[in-house]
Specification:
With about 525 residues, the chain is α/β, with parallel strands linked by helices. It has two domains: about 260 residues, Amidase signature (AS) domain (Amidase signature (AS) enzymes), CATH 3.90.1300; about 160 residues, Amidase signature (AS) domain (Amidase signature (AS) enzymes, Alpha-Beta Complex), CATH 3.90.1300. It is about 40% helix and about 15% strand. It is built from 18 helices and 13 strands. The strands form two sheets. An eleven-stranded mixed sheet has the order 1-3-2-6-8-7-12-13-11-9-10. Strands 4-5 form a two-stranded antiparallel sheet. The two termini are about 35 Å apart.
């Protein structure tokens, strides 16, 4: 049996074991979790019709039945059922922690958990590393909110920052995750497993991470909602890094309401990772922004730089714009003359910060591999398992970078700030008095290709500018091209999560574009 087949089989076997008794299995089998929302699950638990333990078993059953085709879950939490039972005890005792109480969620496998699960970023190099000394800050927030950590999801290895010719959704540890709409299509990365799992209803909600597009792309191509917050809203501590100036975790869910509730649970100032200027700039309750009709009177910038690349995408997003106009939004065409002036600088920043941040993380984690050079050697020594399809060119160039006092690095940071933020989003929004900017989140996703890697030539994406600026971005399902989901992104100035959530929610309610996947093996007209 191939290694990735063994790992997948082990995860599925773990799901079967966790289901427990015949009675527990029967209860799980009877539970309908298709498109369940946090509010519907809470209502069902509050009324006594079900329990957190039954819901958790229900998702484990779905994983056992469905994930053998998608391969989104890299590891299950052996304590999931016991956590759910404890949440049920608290509910019976009258203690409710909030909208996540008893709700099963999944985490991307680059987020530390100090439990019986591993944290590996998908790399075999970290499989035997010491268990993290403590939960990532956002995981401690989730536990405090009553969430049931169901398991870890597969990802593009090292959050898709190992090689220029990578295959999104593939890791040495987890193998290839597939898009649940058409299984021969890519789920995008790097939060591929979270996107695919939530779309396929394998958990109530999940957490991904983004540096540039890694929440937005897998959310949009898997037909769900993803929120990439402003840098500083969510702690980065305990998360295997790429770049401190762009890294953030964020919620991935099937509805804006669920994503807003999840964001509220993890948003907080972390004393070990406080971003200057973030104190007092955001809130913990984003559900109050879930107001229908919020588009009425809103001034929405339409980022026309992203039109004209794919006629089918244009058609879907034009229909979304029409829906906004019907809801009373005023649409203003805008352009970004500096859109292509920060790409090279961004890559410089990411390489410098990756080397610096990853080696600090590895040092604090402990284990055999403590430097980027040592990981490069590991991959060479284990090339058959780690590099069967693509190499490690980004690792190699990043390893040669100097420290963060380098002139090249500092100039690249200044370029990014100038063209993405100050003379990018900030200037366009100020000059046009905008509430938000919209653009297509994605084009139809590409086929999984182990020969040439990600075939994204001509692919449409609007994630880079808000990512480089460090500003918020929300993607919402907008429609389909044949069987493949297309999302629309709402982005804006720093700390504007509340405004974006209100607009995204109003659009979602008007468009109602989400539909559950059919797990087609391939597309046939």
């Amino acid at each position: 049996m191939k290694r990735r087949e063994f790992l997948s089989s082990a995860a599925l076997a773990g799901a079967a074991v966790l289901l427990g008794t015949d009675k527990g299995f029967a209860a799980a089998k009877a539970l309908d979790l298709e498109e369940a929302t946090l509010s519907s699950l809470q209502e069902a638990m509050s009324s006594g019709r079900t329990s957190s333990a039954s819901i958790t078993r229900g998702y484990l059953l779905r994983i056992s039945n469905i994930d053998k085709r998608i391969n989104s879950i890299i590891e299950l939490n052996p304590d999931a059922i016991s956590i759910a039972v404890e949440m049920d005890r608290e509910r019976r005792a009258g203690r409710l922690r909030g909208p996540l109480h008893g709700i099963p969620v999944v985490l991307k496998d680059n987020i530390d958990t100090a439990d019986k699960m591993k944290t590996t970023a998908g790399s075999l190099a970290l499989v035997d590393a010491p268990t993290p000394k403590k939960d990532a800050f956002i995981v401690s927030r989730l536990r405090a909110a009553g969430a049931v950590i169901l398991g870890k999801t597969n990802l593009s290895e090292w959050a898709n920052f190992r090689d220029n010719d990578s295959i999104s959704g593939w890791s040495g540890r987890g193998g290839q995750t597939r898009n649940p709409y058409i299984l021969d299509r890519n789920p995008c990365g790097s939060s591929s497993g979270t996107g695919a799992a939530i779309s396929a209803n394998l958990a109530a909600a999940g957490i991904g991470t983004e540096t540039d597009g890694s929440i937005v792309c897998p959310s949009s191509v898997n037909g769900i909602v993803g929120i990439k917050p402003t840098i500083g809203v969510v702690s980065r501590s305990g998360i295997i890094p790429i770049a401190a100036s762009q890294d953030t975790a964020g919620p991935m869910a099937r509805t804006v309401a669920d994503a807003a509730a999840l964001l509220g649970a993890i948003a907080a100032i972390d004393p070990e990772d406080a971003v200057p200027g973030s104190v007092g700039m955001f809130e913990n309750d984003f559900t109050k922004y879930l107001v229908k009709g919020s588009l009425r009177g809103a001034r929405i910038g339409v980022a026309r730089d992203y039109w004209g690349r794919n006629a089918a995408v244009d058609k879907v997003i034009d229909a979304a714009l029409d829906a906004m106009k019907r809801e009373g939004a005023e649409l203003i065409d805008v352009r970004f003359p500096n859109l292509r002036r920060f790409g090279a600088a961004e890559f410089e920043v990411l390489q410098y910060e990756f080397k610096d941040g990853l080696e600090k993380y590895l040092s604090s984690r402990g284990g055999k591999y403590l430097t980027l050079d040592s990981l490069i050697r590991f991959n060479i020594e284990n090339a058959r398992r780690e590099m069967p399809y693509f190499g490690q060119s980004i690792f190699e160039t990043s390893a040669k970078k100097g420290d963060l006092k380098s002139k090249e690095y500092l100039e690249a940071v200044a370029t990014c700030r100038k063209y993405a933020a100050e003379e990018g989003i900030d200037q366009v929004m100020y000059e046009n008095r905008l509430d938000a900017i919209v653009g297509p989140s994605n084009g139809p996703t590409w086929m999984i290709d182990t020969v040439t890697g990600d075939c994204t030539s001509g692919y449409v994406s609007s994630s880079s500018m808000p990512a480089v600026a460090g500003y918020p971005n929300i993607t919402v399902p907008a429609g389909f091209i044949k069987e493949l989901p297309i999302g629309i992104s709402f982005f804006g100035k720093a700390w504007s999560e509340g405004k974006l959530i209100s607009l995204a929610y109003s659009f979602e309610q008007a468009a109602n574009a989400r539909r559950k996947p059919r797990l087609l093996s391939t597309y046939s007209a």
